[in-house]
């Protein structure tokens, strides 16, 4: 039997393989999540995320300069808020001179080209560690939307390019869009976490920000009444289409690697840009294996990010953004 069609012909040399490559990862695809804390000239390592730190504002700005010079043009901001600033309303989140607002201003001043994307969600500001205001023991959707809108407008005033609501309340994209338009921030975009699943892969992030739901009979002990059920995929399409209709500019799917079927499905359904969040638990798994010598760190980083792009991501939020940029720059 003659074999006329041989797939291996196009794998004969590195040069041929490079000619037929469909997906190529570049620094243009990378967004770095950044953890910020109060104080000066301090950084704290996050134990479950080797290589990742909480930094004070001054060191965060320095880090942003470095990221930008490596070609990473987007940062996603998270604040670690001290306990005395937390309450059930999350009002510190729309304090125009809060840590987030100061951070946005400082980064835009020092690195004007950096696309600054603050996280919009109440959990770091909530005494309960939930993404919403608690009313009668439940996460109160509509009251939360009002708070998120004030927060997003305050971020826009500080100079945010794109606000990134990660809370999963219903109708919050429309509420935030209306708030931004009414305040004149017509050019500030919304990157909506549309299909965000209730996932065990967020553990290291919650310890980084001390933002896990607190242990109390009075509140839900998980986020399953607002984040999606991982058994479902059709529901993701419904969530995404609603956010598109409400005026989202970019759609986020989260987590990344175990959810690439969702990414591919959404890619076939919409034409807006898609962001994928390669979350803290995915990063922790890779680092743990690499530290044990069980995986080649650099190869696994580039492969996993390229595969997320192949599934349909236009941009990837990843804690490996900096090391990936260094690798990509050769
Ligand atoms: C909360 C938020 C979470 C993450 C980003 N924003 C955690 C959660 O929903 O509990 C997780 C990111 C990660 O794990 O890397 N609004």
| Helical content class | 25-40%
Determine the strand fraction and express it as a percent band: 15-25%
Number of beta strands: 12
Q: Strands of the largest sheet, in order across it?
A: 1-4-5-8-9-10-11-12
Folded structure, characterized:
It holds the Pfam family ALAD. Keywords: Heme biosynthesis, Lyase, Magnesium, Metal-binding, Porphyrin biosynthesis. This protein has an eight-stranded parallel beta barrel, surrounded by nine helices. A two-stranded antiparallel ribbon has the order 6-7. The radius of gyration is 20 Å and the shape is globular. It has a single domain, classed as Aldolase class I (TIM Barrel, Alpha-Beta Barrel). The chain is an alpha/beta fold. The model has no long low-confidence stretch (mean pLDDT 97). The longest helix has 18 residues, at 141-158. The relative contact order is 0.14. Helix 2 (57-70) crosses helix 3 (99-110), helix 3 runs parallel beside helix 4 and helix 4 packs across helix 5 (172-182). It has eleven helices and twelve strands. A hairpin with a 7-residue loop joins strand 2 and strand 3. Ligand PBG binds at residues 119, 121, 123, 131, 166-167, 202, 205-206, 223, 279-280.
Question: How are the SSEs ordered, and which strands pair?
Answer:
Blueprint: H1 14-19, E1 30-37, E2 43-45, E3 53-56, H2 57-70, E4 74-79, H3 99-110, E5 115-120, E6 134-135, E7 138-139, H4 141-158, E8 162-165, H5 172-182, E9 189-196, H6 203-209, H7 234-246, E10 250-254, H8 260-269, E11 274-278, H9 280-291, H10 297-311, E12 315-318, H11 321-328
Parallel strand pairs: 1-3, 1-4, 1-12, 4-5, 5-8, 8-9, 9-10, 10-11, 11-12
Antiparallel strand pairs: 2-3, 6-7
The chain binds ligand PBG.
């Amino acid at each position: 039997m003659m074999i006329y069609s041989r797939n291996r012909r196009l794998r004969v040399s590195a040069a041929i393989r490079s000619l037929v490559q469909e997906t190529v990862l570049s620094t243009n695809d990378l967004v770095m999540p950044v953890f910020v804390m109060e104080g000066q000239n301090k950084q704290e390592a996050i134990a479950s995320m080797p290589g990742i730190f909480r930094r004070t504002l001054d060191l965060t700005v320095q880090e942003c300069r470095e990221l930008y010079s490596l070609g990473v043009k987007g940062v996603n901001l998270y604040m670690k808020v001290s306990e005395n600033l937390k309450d059930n309303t999350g009002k510190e989140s729309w304090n125009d001179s809060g840590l987030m607002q100061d951070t946005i201003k400082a980064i835009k001043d020092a690195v004007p080209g950096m696309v600054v994307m603050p996280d919009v969600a109440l959990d770091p500001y909530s005494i309960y560690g939930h993404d919403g205001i608690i009313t009668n023991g439940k996460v109160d959707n509509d009251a939360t939307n009002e708070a998120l809108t004030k927060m997003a407008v305050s971020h826009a005033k500080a100079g945010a390019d794109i606000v990134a609501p990660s809370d999963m309340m219903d109708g919050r994209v429309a509420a935030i869009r209306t708030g931004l338009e009414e305040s004149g921030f017509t050019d500030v975009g919304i990157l909506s976490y549309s299909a965000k699943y209730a996932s065990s892969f967020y553990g290291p992030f919650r310890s980084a920000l001390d933002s896990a739901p607190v242990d109390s009979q009075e509140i839900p002990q998980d986020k399953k009444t607002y984040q999606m059920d991982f058994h479902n995929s059709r529901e993701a399409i419904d969530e995404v289409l609603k956010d598109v209709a409400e005026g989202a500019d970019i759609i986020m799917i989260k987590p990344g690697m175990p959810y690439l079927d969702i990414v591919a499905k959404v890619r076939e359904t919409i034409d807006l840009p898609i962001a994928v969040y390669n979350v803290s638990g995915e990063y922790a798994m890779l680092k743990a294996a690499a530290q044990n010598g069980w995986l080649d760190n650099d190869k696994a980083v580039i492969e996993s990010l390229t595969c997320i792009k192949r599934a349909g991501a236009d941009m990837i939020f990843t804690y490996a953004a900096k090391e990936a940029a260094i690798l990509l720059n050769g």
